[in-house]
Design brief:
Blueprint (H helix, E strand, L loop, with lengths): L15 H4 L11 H11 L15 E2 L11 E2 L14 E2 L7 E3 L41 E5 L11 E4 L18 E3 L9 E6 L2 E5 L14 E5 L7 E8 L13 E4 H7 L4 E2 L2 E7 L14 E7 L8 E4 L6 H13 L7 E8 L5 E7 L5 H4 L3 E6 L8 H13 L4 H9 E6 L4 H6 L24 H14 L3 E2 L1
Parallel strand pairs: 9-11, 19-20, 19-21
Antiparallel strand pairs: 1-3, 2-6, 4-6, 5-8, 7-10, 8-9, 10-16, 11-15, 12-13, 12-16, 14-15, 17-18, 18-20
Length: 465
């Protein structure tokens, strides 16, 4: 752990002059201009008096109902980062690449914790490991992959494509229906081998042919207590926690409505293994792996969601931040602001948490920067970040002491674009943002570029851990 001593003075009172500090037009061509941008982005701690959240978010240039196309070249518009007109927190509908089909109705899941620890799956060593059969031996019952004229991100809109293609015809009445065209969803193809065995294919991260691991999709037309087998046959990772006892997640809509039961672990006869699909004739082919498991559904004609891990979407984050902003107590020491816009025009938020301080005390505070969800498929990071925010804004004695001694700068979701489209690792740049911290390309990786400003910016007025 390294601490850096602050050398520069920083205004600590929050009056009208400080609130309008963002009016200044900033240029990025020199070091002094970057420091000026940092100063405008990271204002001193606010002291609120109203019961409603009075620390405001920089207004987005898009109104809530704006469905205009957003182009990649517009990503550096200055007004997103410094805007003198501030407004209460308003959620923004997710913006999608225009080639993505998106169902209009948002998926909602209840928040529910299992009453006890759920057991791991204990492998027996006798698990069935079926080899992929493919379309030749089955029937495609679901297929969806966004198709673009170019293999890179070019523009976005709220709701993605204006066209929703009709579902595939079903050969039999008892065929399962699949769907993944919703926020964070990922399923590219479902092949019915038999009425109770389905091969599934995941979509790669957009504009790549890699990183197939995250899955999240809906199954309907299910039969109660009928044993189904699912095999996801194109996973990318050569090792998985499914080999160590992890089980997939299941969410029954009827269970949530009738019994207030949320996500639960499911599956038996779980195996994760190599497909051995690389041959001497094609050594450059990517090795893939299969996750196979059996499952019984608890209700007849239910809608059931299956996921790699507990989903946490961009809309979920906005709902949480909206509640934080409107809380009569938490809003007195918390602010939510806009750090930047992503390539698709989605908001990257940052949260400041600290006790209101006198100018003298504020200069003695150290700053702690915390970020999460750089990889979309790693949803536990969002749930851990929610726990961090819950704790830091809570009324416990340790939380109050931390707020008194530190300034917390928190970026809860670094990669909203990847989260929205259901990627596993990359942003819409087709790159892993966790490998871009040395980059100087602001336009391609805005959330990383502006997060990097946070540490030197805090060094002017606080110690940095």
């Amino acid at each position: 752990m390294t601490t850096h001593t602050a050398h520069a003075q920083y205004p600590q009172t929050m009056d009208n002059e400080n609130e309008s500090a963002g009016k200044e037009v900033l240029e990025h061509s020199s070091e002094s201009s970057v420091k000026a941008l940092q100063s405008a982005l990271f204002l001193p701690p606010l002291s609120n008096t109203g019961s409603y959240f009075s620390n405001f978010l920089v207004k987005s240039p898009f109104d809530d109902d704006d469905d205009s196309k957003f182009k990649l070249k517009d990503v550096t518009s200055r007004e997103w980062f410094v805007n003198s007109k501030e407004a209460p927190f308003n959620t923004q509908p997710p913006r999608w690449p225009t080639e993505c089909q998106v169902l209009e109705e948002r998926v909602h899941h209840i928040s529910d914790t299992p009453p006890s620890f759920e057991p791991y799956y204990v492998p027996t060593g006798n698990e069935c490991q079926p080899k992929p059969s493919g379309e030749e031996l089955g029937t495609i019952v679901f297929q969806y992959t966004p198709i673009s004229a170019v293999n890179y991100f070019s523009r976005s809109s709220v709701g993605g494509s204006k066209y929703i293609l009709s579902t595939l015809s079903f050969p039999e009445e008892d065929t399962l229906r699949f769907e993944s065209r919703f926020e964070s969803g990922n399923l590219a193809k479902a092949i019915m081998i038999t009425p109770n065995y389905y091969e599934l294919h995941l979509r790669s991260d957009m504009y790549t042919n890699r990183h197939m691991q995250w899955f999240y999709f809906k199954v309907s037309n299910v039969k109660k207590d009928f044993l189904y087998r699912f095999s996801i046959t194109n996973c990318s990772k050569d090792s998985s926690l499914y080999s160590e006892g992890m089980r997939p997640l299941m969410y029954s809509v009827k269970d949530s409505q009738l019994h207030s039961i949320g996500w639960r672990r499911c599956g038996q006869n779980i195996a994760y293994y190599c497909n051995e699909n690389v041959t001497p004739e094609d050594p450059d082919q990517q090795m893939t792996y299969t996750l196979t498991f059996t499952v019984k559904f608890p209700h007849e004609d239910d809608e059931v969601y299956l996921a790699h891990c507990y989903p946490y979407t961009y809309s979920d984050l906005q709902d949480y931040l909206s509640e934080l902003c409107s809380h009569p107590v938490k809003s007195t020491f918390s602010t939510v602001r806009l750090l930047c816009k992503t390539l698709a025009g989605n908001n990257v938020y940052y949260v400041t948490i600290t006790s209101p301080s006198t100018p003298g005390d504020a200069k003695k505070k150290r700053a702690i920067v915390i970020t999460a969800r750089v990889h979309p498929g790693e949803t536990p990071s969002s749930w851990m970040m929610k726990g961090v925010l819950d704790f830091l804004t809570g009324d416990s004695a340790p939380a109050k002491e931390l707020r008194d001694k530190f300034v917390f700068k928190i970026v809860p979701m670094l990669n909203p674009d990847g989260v929205i489209v259901g990627n596993n690792r990359c942003s819409l740049s087709a790159k892993d943002l966790n490998r871009q911290y040395r980059t100087v390309i602001r336009d391609a990786y805005p959330s990383i570029w502006y997060t990097k400003l946070m540490t030197p910016g805090r060094m002017w007025c606080y110690y940095v851990l």
